[in-house]
Amino acid sequence: MIYEKVEKFYEGYGGRKCIIGYSLKGKDIFAFHVGNPTGKQFISTYAIHGREWITAELALRHIKIGVKNGGGWIIPIVNPDGVAISESVRAMWKANARGVDLNCNFDADWGSGRLNTKRRGGENCIGDSPFSESETRALKNFTIKIRPYVTFSFHTKGEEIYWQYNGLGDKRGADILAEATGYKPVIIYGSAGGYKDWCIQKLKIPAYTIECGADSLEHPIKDIQKLKKCFKALKIFTDKYAE
Length: 243
Prior knowledge:
By secondary structure, the chain is of the alpha/beta class. It has one domain (about 1-240): Zn peptidases (Aminopeptidase, 3-Layer(aba) Sandwich), CATH 3.40.630.10. Helices cover about 30% and strands about 20% of the residues. The protein is built from seven helices and ten strands. The strands form two sheets. An eight-stranded mixed sheet has the order 1-2-4-3-5-10-6-9, with helices on both faces. Strand 7 (about 165) and strand 8 (about 170) form a beta hairpin. Helix 5 packs across helix 7 (about 235-240). The longest helix is centred in the middle third of the chain and has 13 residues, at about 135-145. The mean pLDDT is about 95.
């Protein structure tokens, strides 16, 4: 199971690390620091959707590769309970253990997305209010504490990069990520309440969602090599963005 793999990695990790909070069922949400501890910092998140647990494997790659310029925090599994449900009960499950889609639970035009619903289930449920879930509150509080200059959200699938929200965003960073991955920067409409959206709208910082893996792949993706185009994405971005 991927959570246990990340937990074991955390126990043996010699760098800076912390637990930013807990899932509904009390599982740790681990964070690992890479690069320089001073100066501008990024935050990179993974597995906010249960069935996208393969991105936690990508996070471990990013930790091992590290970054050359600057530093930042990598959070391999934002949604530990949802990952466990996907791995062992319902493979296509995206939400947390309460049936709330965590990437619809942030305070960025909350509840206005085209597919949003208040009905609990495997996806698209917005929750009772913005940050109603322990996992999103943990990520919110950690983000405010770190004050990152940029955030990344690694998802699957589609080989696209989302960089804009309601007319705001930094296309230059999307172009750097596109060069690093071969993915296409696109603008999407009808979506709201995501971590990227909140970072752009409320924190006024660049934020990017990277949809890893070809759209032809089936959820859940189980082979990390299918995400190999993203292996060096963080390193390349941090090398070039400050130029």
